[in-house]
Amino acid sequence: MRLADFILDQLEAILQEWENFARTLEPPGASMSTKELRNHAAVMLKGIAEDLRNPQSRDQEIAKSHGLEPASPQSQAGEHHGVARLESNFSIEQLVSEYRALRSSVLRLWAESTKSAEQTDIVDITRFNEAIDQLLAASVFSFAKAARKAQEAEKQRRNQFLAMLGHELRNPLSPISAAATILRMANSGDHTIINASNIIARQVTHMATLVDDLLDVSRVTRGIIEVRCEPLDLRSVIDDAVEQVLPQMQARAQAFSVAELREPVPVNGDRKRLVQVVSNLLTNAAKYTPQGGAIALRVDLDDERVALVVEDNGIGMAPDLIPHVFELFAQAERTPDRASGGLGLGLALVKSLVEHHGGKVSCHSDGPGRGSRFTVWLPRRQAAAAQGA
User: Fold this and answer.
1) What is the pLDDT of residue 192?
2) 171: exposed, middle or buried (C-beta count within 10 Å: 0-12, 13-18, 19+)?
3) Lowest-pLDDT range, 34-38, 355-359, 362-366, 381-385?
4) CATH architecture of residue range(s) 230-388
5) What is the mean pLDDT of residues 41-49?
6) Are 305 and 378 in contact (CB under 8 A)?
7) 20-45 mean pLDDT
8) pLDDT category, 67, cuts 50, 70, 90?
9) Which end of the chain is more exposed for a tag (fewer CB within 10 A), N or C?
């Protein structure tokens, strides 16, 4: 029996094996129907059988090899199948394994029913394998395309949420800060109330910084961040950033040092944004360095670049975290109780802002418990430009 005739004659048996295998791939907790499990399989198999019954020219062989064959019911079914499996939470590996199992089932069942092989059988097997490969390609392509589309939609929803959340959180901060000031002024002789109002003021300032980062991350992800570059001496940027973060380090009894810079460090940059970069790096170091630890900042220069390095002897990072440390919301559980964890905004913002300045940022750690080192490279403003500025 020719392979095409066998597929049509034994279609139900083949589909049953497909269904049985697909059921082993069901996501946990799912209860898919027979229709969902057999999704588009009958259309694909009937299309293959019809194609096998028709002679194939050399031009058709070449077109199929290059993926240029006209759209067919089975190829369209393959595309729909890929999207359906994505929507059913199958992985792309599971999608591929379905086609491998289908190939094996059909050829095994056919071999069991065929007593002797003929030349036409070899041709049928070759063309059947080509057809399965083409269906797999169609399914994988549509699976990946649909996955990208879903990710873009999720990214857009997340950006809208971040922008809305940032503005909603920002609105009450000014009244709270004003109320703390009035409370302090109205009770100038009561040290308890003064201390309480000072705590409120500090926390409002901290909250405002977090909200600003949240809003900036939203702007970065939407491509509307504004960077206004001007000639700067990076030393003044470092001074402003240190002034912001030093109280946090002192509260944790951390030793902080800055390598002395006798000569100007000329760069072109947005002062506000570069202060954000340095302060976020220092805040990150303070957050993940234990009480009494050490944090150091230094600047290295060559003819073309400025390297700002923040190094600590804190809890360090596992190798698998380092490639993702600058990703948005990728804050790993670097401490067992997540007590020192954050939203994962600061380092993502650092990377984006540095890249907007034509620079790059990297991180290094020798492993958990062995500290971390973050390095920002910025283009150095050349002497001729510096003199003309």
Assistant:
1) 85
2) exposed
3) 381-385
4) 2-Layer Sandwich (3.30)
5) 88
6) yes
7) 87
8) low
9) C
Q: Quickly list H helices, 171-190.
A: 173-186
Residue 2 DSSP label: -
Instruction: Report the largest interatomic distance among the alpha carbons of the chain, rounded to a whole angstrom.
Output: 105
In angstroms, rounded to a whole number, what is the distance separating the alpha carbons of residues 286 and 254? Answer: 8
- Please check whether residue 348 is in contact with residue 297, taking contact to mean a CB–CB distance below 8 angstroms: no
| Whole-number pLDDT of residue 389 | 46
Structure tokens at 344: 């994962």
- Residue identified by tokens 């004659």 is 9
Burial class of 192 by CB neighbour count within 10 A (0 to 12, 13 to 18, 19+):
exposed
The first and second tokens of residue 20, run together, are: 């049985």
Query: Tokens 């589309």 identify what position?
Result: 149
> At 168, is the secondary structure helix, strand, or coil?
helix
What is the amino acid identity at position 180?
A: A
pLDDT at 338: 45
pLDDT at res. 70: 63
H or E element at residue 60: helix 58-65
Closest CA to 258 of 320, 188, 308, 313: 308
Kindly report the backbone phi and psi dihedral angles of residue 259, in degrees, each rounded to the nearest multiple of 5, phi listed first.
Answer: -65, 130
How far, in Å, are 111, 216, 226, 355, 366 from residue 219 at the CA level? 61, 5, 8, 14, 34
Write the burial class of residue 63 (CB in 10 Å: 0-12 exposed, 13-18 middle, 19+ buried).
middle
Q: What does the pLDDT average to over 56-80? A: 70
With CA atoms as reference, report the closest residue to 299 among 388, 236, 231, 372: 236
Cβ contacts of 145 within 8 Å, gap of 6 or more: none
Asked whether residue 142 carries a pLDDT value surpassing 50, the answer given is yes
Q: What is the mean pLDDT of residues 41-56?
A: 83
Question: Are 269 and 238 contacting, i.e. CB atoms less than 8 angstroms apart?
Answer: no
Which residue has 């961040």 as its token pair? 225
Predicted local confidence at residue 156, as pLDDT: 76
Of 64 and 260, the structure prediction assigns the larger pLDDT to 260
Q: Name the H helices within 187-320.
A: 191-221, 234-251, 271-287
The CATH number given to 3-155 is 1.10.490.70
Q: Is residue 284 within 8 Å of 304, Cβ to Cβ?
A: no
pLDDT for 367 equals 92
In contact, 46 and 40? CB cutoff 8 Å: no
